[in-house]
């Protein structure tokens, strides 16, 4: 603890918060600060040197000295926060601001001070100006391995570190060349040949060849490890290196959308002989990981990316799980009128839905269909949107926002009570896991209150995003309140939803899994996008009819960026594409 923190501890005492002058002895200060008299003497000297106090000592037993406070509690708190931020102890600064015995107003001001450390910074190093973007994150970056990732934010960041053979173009809804500059296929879609770009480098400087591609896919397919989206490679029978920059895939059955599979982050290419389970894999992406620890991760521009170096030099992502800082709000000085003009606001529609899913693998009253129907009857999503507002833009009846139709749905408390009586409910507590985000927790508390109205007991358990990787932990709950945010490639996103081993599948019983897999087989055979969506909605409807999934709301949020941050292109994950960002000087 530094001397300023000791000063704040003294100033925080109720009798001293508004005081300017007090009479106090060194021993009393030592007792308050829980330190020795010798240490108290040293602290007093430092306070005087730093200009925190004035001190007029009095000699003699029982005599008290005069201490004059030269900094208010607010001034000392601000100074301490600024010192912590300058030393890059941002997590400590947030803890200090949120856990201290400060007024709500002071806590808010301190957090605003911390947030000013985020956004764009120009750092001069060796006669060169570096553009650095600081972003606060609300949770740990748990999994930086593209083959195991299932969380949207992590997948978005991994797309900046790794490359795939092809990439999905959201504007024309087609797959385009990426690491492969072209490809061709036979008539029955069973033999695909891809032509690899020359001159592509991994972050360690080695060159990409077709052997790296072959090794990546063969390792994923053959190694006896559980990969969440291994299904993407089920149809691959053989991977053939034709030459240094040509590779072919022989499929068991024809698959016209195979390139869509190869656009997923889970098919990122890594160097031959990499440890596929490692969290420090080398990619070829526009950014490389320079450093990562419990506090933050630093991305550094990769100078030799085959599509050109990113405009930003570094991106610092800070892990601040307990903060109220918006990870996408890089402009925060909203109280300063002159700076209100210097910002750009983007509305980001969540391409997905929030929902409750019951754990059909666990015994309990929730296994009763009448009970689940009673829950569904009490959750009026239209009312949720009206009463809670905020980012909730529309009631949901399915995963896809433009396919939701809530117009003919009515809810009845009386009917819910009847259904609950038929279920045989005897007052059991339902344990509901909820993602630890303000909006989700607010939804959960609202639903808890509604269910209490018919005598249903619910206990809400906040969980971290990373908890979804722990299957045993997740299966301990009766139900989970979560959300699905689809990426730009809607067809691939839907297939991933149905097959991802860490998604809805872990909560379904064997019979439901069989139905889901049959639906998947039917969906993937559809000749066009509309037929594809209709088949998916048929699968979705079965989960709704059984009450296994109860949809709540579609969300939308506004995120504000500094006006000199240019090139903002929002991905399907709701984040700006980092390698496209650039800074307009003098803005």
Automatic annotation (TrEMBL):
Superkingdom assignment: Bacteria
GO terms under biological process: peptide transport
Domain called Solute-binding protein family: residue spans: 174-481
Ranges of residues in domain Transcriptional regulator SgrR N-terminal HTH: 15-116
DNA-binding found in the keyword field: yes
Keywords from the named record: DNA-binding
Any GO molecular function: peptide transmembrane transporter activity
One Pfam family per UniProt: SBP_bac_5
Keyword field contains Acetylation: no
Name of the molecule in the record: ABC transporter substrate-binding protein
Source lineage: Bacteria, Bacillati, Bacillota, Bacilli, Bacillales
């Amino acid at each position: 603890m530094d001397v300023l923190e000791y000063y704040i501890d003294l100033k925080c005492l109720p009798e001293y918060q508004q005081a300017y002058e007090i009479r106090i002895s060194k021993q009393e200060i030592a007792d308050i600060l829980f330190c020795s008299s010798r240490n108290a003497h040293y602290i007093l000297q430092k306070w005087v040197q730093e200009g925190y106090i004035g001190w007029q000592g009095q000699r003699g037993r029982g005599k008290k000295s005069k201490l004059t406070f030269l900094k208010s509690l607010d001034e000392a708190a601000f100074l301490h926060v600024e010192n912590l931020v300058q030393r890059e102890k941002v997590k400590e600064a947030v803890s200090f601001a949120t856990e201290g015995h400060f007024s709500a107003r002071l806590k808010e001001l301190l957090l605003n001070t911390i947030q000013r450390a985020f956004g764009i910074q120009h750092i001069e190093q060796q006669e060169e100006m570096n553009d650095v973007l600081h972003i606060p994150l609300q949770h740990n970056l748990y999994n930086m391995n593209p083959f195991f990732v299932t969380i949207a934010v992590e997948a978005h960041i991994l797309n900046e570190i790794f490359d795939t053979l092809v990439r999905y173009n959201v504007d024309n809804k087609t797959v385009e060349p990426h690491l492969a500059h072209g490809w061709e296929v036979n008539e029955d879609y069973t033999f695909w040949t891809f032509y690899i770009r020359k001159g592509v480098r991994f972050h360690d400087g080695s060159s990409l060849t077709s052997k790296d591609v072959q090794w990546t896919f063969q390792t994923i397919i053959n190694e006896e490890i559980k990969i969440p989206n291994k299904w993407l490679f089920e149809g691959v029978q053989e991977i053939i290196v034709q030459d240094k920059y040509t590779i072919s895939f022989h499929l068991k059955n024809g698959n016209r959308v195979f390139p869509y599979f190869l656009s997923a982050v889970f098919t990122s290419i890594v160097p031959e002989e990499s440890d596929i389970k490692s969290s420090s894999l080398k990619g070829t992406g526009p950014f490389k990981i320079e450093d990562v620890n419990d506090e933050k991760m630093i991305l550094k521009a990769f100078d030799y990316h085959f599509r050109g170096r990113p405009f930003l030099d570094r991106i610092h992502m800070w892990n601040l799980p307990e903060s109220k800082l918006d990870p996408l709000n890089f402009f925060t000085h909203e109280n300063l009128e002159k700076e209100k003009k210097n910002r750009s606001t983007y509305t980001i529609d969540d391409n997905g839905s929030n929902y409750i899913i019951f754990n059909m693998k666990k015994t309990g009253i929730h296994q009763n269909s009448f009970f689940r129907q009673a829950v569904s009857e009490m959750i009026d999503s239209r009312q949720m949107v009206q009463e809670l507002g905020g980012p909730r833009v529309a009631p949901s009846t399915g995963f896809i926002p433009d396919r939701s139709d809530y117009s003919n749905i009515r809810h009845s408390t009386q009917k819910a009570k009847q259904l609950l009586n038929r279920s045989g409910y005897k007052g059991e507590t339902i344990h509901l896991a909820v993602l630890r985000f303000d909006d989700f927790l607010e939804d959960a508390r609202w639903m808890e209150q509604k269910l209490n109205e018919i005598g249903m007991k619910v206990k809400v358990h906040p969980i971290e995003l990373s908890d979804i990787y722990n299957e045993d932990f997740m299966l301990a709950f009766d139900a989970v309140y979560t959300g699905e945010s689809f990426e730009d490639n809607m067809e691939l996103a839907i297939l991933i939803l149905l097959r991802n081993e860490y998604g809805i599948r872990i909560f379904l019983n064997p019979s439901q899994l069989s139905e889901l897999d049959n639906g998947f087989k039917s969906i993937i055979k559809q000749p066009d996008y509309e037929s594809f969506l209709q088949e998916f909605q048929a699968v979705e409807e079965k989960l709704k009819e059984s009450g296994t999934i109860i949809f709540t709301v579609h969300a939308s949020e506004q995120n504000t960026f500094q006006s000199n941050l240019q090139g903002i292109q929002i991905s399907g994950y709701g984040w700006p594409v980092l390698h496209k960002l650039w800074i307009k000087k003098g803005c």
